[in-house]
Design goal:
The chain has 16 helices and 12 strands. The protein is α/β, with parallel strands linked by helices.
């Protein structure tokens, strides 16, 4: 998989597997450079790091998988590399995600939308992951994502926000995105920052990775004088910590957008070339989407492009700062209404991380004696148990791989 967002969207599967199999060994395979994304996740037994740049690393991991004797492999990545890793793994059950490539191709290339005809609604990527794990008892309706932070990050976050509040910071903005067609214009971000300060007295912090510092610098150069650029100054987990306590988060369709959704903070998500049907809208009751829904050229890609194929970039250019500001006002009213009701805004206590291309595998080892009541939760699990009953005396084994796009 290729993004922070895809990793975060697998967390409902991890959580539900732990709830269903509390005594199981749940291992997760991930590229070493992205291991901090899930290092603090309490539902994972072993976080297995792999350096794919090291010669022979994949072959060694394949041998380890075979030697461990996983019962279930859940492959949510679904590419040739993950297929090769699970091939001849010895797992008694291998599950993988359906990527709906045909539906996606029809939508992106011919603007034929069959998602609602087949599903009845538009499934999120998180739901697709849960569908893959459904034979293990996952509930496809429980798509709440979560992130986990260490106590050290939490403490540092408290200190940062105490200082930021004293300086009038009320908004975090993440104007970056890997692909150009998913980025709102820097001059529009600058105009929005000025309006938020003029209308509400809110100052803004610009956040992101080292690669996004130049994008944030463009916003400052465009006249956003009531903001600061701290992109690249915080680690990914520190950035997640900052997002977790922000009163308002504004971003493009990006990994940090999904982080804000995991914390259920009030957020505005600006969508350009991508649409709801692709499954990446934030899963957050406190989110508002701003998009140019009147264009027949959207989506032009399922992940974004380096340039606008039509040359006009209307999907982003025609989203004005006033449109976003109106969504901010509406969201503020909605949030206040929830605060005054008997159903306060849910704020996830969980923390975690994700990033670009890396492996996502969850391996399960399930002891029948300790998990007998869990194995009988679904008819499908009973069928699998019967099917493999001759394979061993006391183990129902499973190995799984989660692709984090």
């Amino acid at each position: 998989m290729s993004s922070i967002g895809d990793v975060i969207l697998t967390t409902p599967v991890i959580r539900q597997l732990r709830e269903t199999f509390p005594d199981a060994q749940i291992d997760f395979l991930i590229r070493r450079e992205f291991a901090d994304v899930l290092r603090a996740n309490p539902h994972i037994s072993n976080l297995i790091e792999i350096d794919v740049r090291k010669k022979g690393a994949l072959s060694l991991e394949k041998l380890r998988i075979r030697a461990t004797g996983y019962d279930v492999i859940l492959d949510l990545q679904g590419n040739l590399r993950s297929f090769w890793l699970r091939l001849f793994s010895g797992a008694k059950l291998v599950l993988k995600m359906r990527k709906n490539k045909v539906l996606r191709h029809l939508l992106v290339n011919y603007k034929i939308n069959w998602y609602t005809k087949i599903y009845g609604n538009v499934p999120s990527v998180a739901e697709k992951y849960l569908r893959a794990a459904a034979p293990l008892g996952t509930d496809i309706r429980d798509t709440k994502t979560e992130l986990h932070l260490s106590p050290e990050i939490r403490k540092a976050t408290d200190t940062r926000w105490q200082n930021w509040r004293e300086n009038g910071i009320h908004v975090l903005m993440a104007p970056g995105a890997r692909h150009f067609t998913k980025r709102w214009l820097p001059e529009n971000y600058a105009a929005l920052i000025r309006r938020l300060h003029a209308d509400f007295g809110w100052r803004t912090l610009l956040v992101g990775g080292p690669d996004e510092r130049d994008i944030c610098a463009e916003i400052l150069a465009a006249g956003a004088d009531c903001t600061e650029n701290i992109a690249g100054e915080l680690s990914l987990t520190e950035t997640f910590g900052a997002i977790s306590q922000t009163p308002l988060f504004i971003s493009n369709d990006s990994g940090l957008m999904h982080a804000a959704a995991a914390f259920a903070v009030p957020q505005i998500a600006i969508f350009g070339s991508t649409t709801r049907e692709l499954g990446f809208f934030p899963i957050n009751p406190n989110a508002a989407i701003v998009e140019n829904s009147g264009l027949n050229c959207r989506p032009c890609s399922h992940i974004g492009k380096a340039t606008c194929p039509k040359g006009h970039f209307r999907c982003m250019r025609e989203i004005s700062p006033e449109m976003v500001l109106e969504s901010v006002a509406q969201l503020a009213g909605s949030v206040q209404k929830q605060k005054n009701s008997s159903f306060p805004i849910e704020k996830s206590p969980f923390w975690g991380m994700e990033n670009r291309t890396f492996f996502r595998y969850i391996y399960l080892r399930l002891n029948v004696e300790h998990n007998q009541h869990n194995l009988q939760k679904t008819e499908s699990l009973r069928q699998y148990r019967t099917h493999i009953s001759d394979a061993g005396n006391c183990k129902f084994t499973g190995g799984g791989g989660f692709p984090f796009s």
